Here is the input.
Amino acid sequence: MATNRNRERESSVLQNITIAAMVAISLLAYLVFKTLSVDQSLHQQRLGALRTVGSLDLEITRLYFGVLGQDIGINPEEKEELRLDLARAVNALQEGPQALVDLTPELDAAMQAFYETAGTKINIAAEVKASESERLKTLISLPTAARLAAIEQAYQSWYQSKNDDANSYRVALVAYTALLLIALAYLGYRLRMSYYALDKANAGLLEANRTLESQVQVRTKDLTLALHNLKESQAQLIQSEKMASLGQMVAGVAHEINTPLGYARSNAGIVRSSLGGIRELCESQGRALGLLGAANSSEEDIAGALAQAEELRQSVQPEELMGDLDNLLGDTDHGLVQIADLVSSLKDFSRVDRSRNDLFDLNAGIDSALKICNSQMKGRVDVVRYFSKLPEIECSPSQVNQVFLNLINNAAQAIDGEGVITIETLAEKNAVVVKITDTGCGMSEDVKKRIFEPFYTTKPVGQGTGLGLSIVFRIIEEHGGKISVSSKPGEGTTFSVQLPLKQPLAAAA
Amino acid sequence: MNVAVQKPRVLFVDDEPRVLTSMKMLFRGAYEMHFAESGQQAIDMLKTQPVDVIVSDQRMPGMSGFEFLRAARDINPHAMRILLTGYSDLNAIIGSVNEGEIFRFVNKPWANDVLSSTVANAVSAARASFAVAQHPEPAHQPHASQTGSEKPAMLVLDDDAKVLPRVQAILGEAYRVFGARTMDEAVECLEREHIGVVVSETRVQNQPVVSLISLLKQHQPQLVTVILTERADAGAAIELINQGQIYRLMTKPLQEVTCRIMVNSAHRHHQQLARTPELHQRYEVEQPAAPPPGAAAPPTVGLLDRIRSLRNWVTGRAASA
Here is the structure.
């Protein structure tokens, strides 16, 4: 559109310039024409014609003047020739290109006067005889020369005025030409300037053209670098999300382990310190028994030893103590089993001892993930399991466990205060399905649409990277599975994960 | 007196009953023991039965140990509070210092003798300060050595030069704020001025300040320390509480309102400690474990001597006052 408008403007400018040039040229032509209206050769011809008339008239006059009073006959041939010549010459003033008619009224009047006089003269000359001296005198005295001079003068004055006009036009022409030259010079200057600018722009374009290639290369390099950095930082973020969830997991697991470890260790210490008293009692009782069995022991010794043993028994209270110690050792056992369980589920969870693509029972994976999340939910969230018997599926167990840990963690975090997480597993024809439902806060449609986007989070800044569910999504996608979510604000959320029994060959490779 | 013959009362709170069983056996005969399996249950018990010492687990469902101890402080301010932790995140520790005023952190798994001596120390501190702690804020008497119109003095120990002017800008009207960039400078300043409150980074010149703070607290128990740090980590914070009895912990960047509230509160605490020496035991520091060979050198003997003389100087001054 902009170019169209430019083109329109350009064409109208061009039109205006053409019109201006045409006006300027016609003005110039007009001035030149006006200047050229004085025709020097015509002027000379006219003057010549006037001279011819003048000289012929003079000759006729002289001829007749010659015969006057001498009474000699006039050579009729000569006379006739002169007469005809004069008539022709006079005619020439009236006809042809050099005719002196219709130039000015004065000239016309002078001409008229001359014609009359000249006509009279010619008429007289035609019929006059040498003897008729009176008529000859009349003829001679006819003022043809004066009349002719009047004509010449009128003509000269016309010519002069004509010449003056032409001169003034010439001056105008000179001025106009000078003006045009100035305008032309200005246009030339403008043109030179535009050319200069154009040259400069051209040089710039050339330069740009020449450097374009290298610029493109530099930009491409920059972009490649930026892309690389972006990928790297994304990988870093995913890693940091993994580390964050790992940290959270470690905090939970550390507490889960340290608590049983704490009381087991304490109990062991208590048992050890109690053993001192029991040992003393045993020794004392043994001594009393030894005295009883010995033949040479006195009654008093035996009574003393027994009393001492009884006193110790009273203070140690072995029945009660034994019961307590049994309890403590039972607790210790329980704690150690708990620790062993946890360690083994950690091992199950990480699956570092198993290959990437393995046959795996999802129920076991969910159980180990639940053990690890336990500390977050204990006493707050009830977990209800509806597990069906599942065929083992081909998958990367550690990644799939990560999916369940993230989903269960999310479910637990969605529940503010007390609630229930229901986990259901189903076997389908070629797939297994896991549904994790919480009675948490739920989410709106808008949130639901975006939850699998990387970096989308509803948690306060610093509490979540918004990568957890995007990692879940990626892992499931890589396994050729599907994840869907349904949620009602205030009622809870269900995540359904479907994983195929077998991995396509390409993915397994 | 009834109090003298009565066994000290200790309340144990843990969601794992086996821990409580173990405690029961460990302390059997020594104390009158009460047990609760959740913070809420413990709060209910405290409302009817005040105790001398509370030992609580940190990570419990429903109410965390730190939340419980904060509530317990309001109900039963006299009780000494000990937090038993399997794993603590930093925010929980900062919260418990600032709001729960914890006597000690004890890590799980605990050593029986350490736990026993910690509880014993807490019990004796609670007993020693019973009468005072029951009425924590009696009539507001200005401290003897501070009768003049002089503004109270405090010290900022930080090698970041920007901190001192900032603190001066925030507190300049109410306090005379002195600065120190090294521990030596800090001791010099403490010799020169009557400092009540120290605001310190956790490390200056790449040396941890915990041993200095610990020594200062041992020899000058009325001195109150507030930590202002940007390198907060859970381990260092626990060390500072156990060994330095720091009063508050702030993280950089410095917040004006928080700073003012904490320093004012620290100053009131200092005045109270100076007024009532019976309270000192409540803020007794834990002797650091034998320093591992090759660890950061403890303050030089010279520094130690100077701190000791500092005490003489202060006590002498107090006696002459």
Remarks:
- The domain at 2-134 of chain B is CATH 3.40.50.2300 (Rossmann fold).
- Residues 138-148, 316-321 of chain B have pLDDT under 50 and may be disordered.
- DSSP finds 13 helices and twelve strands in chain B.
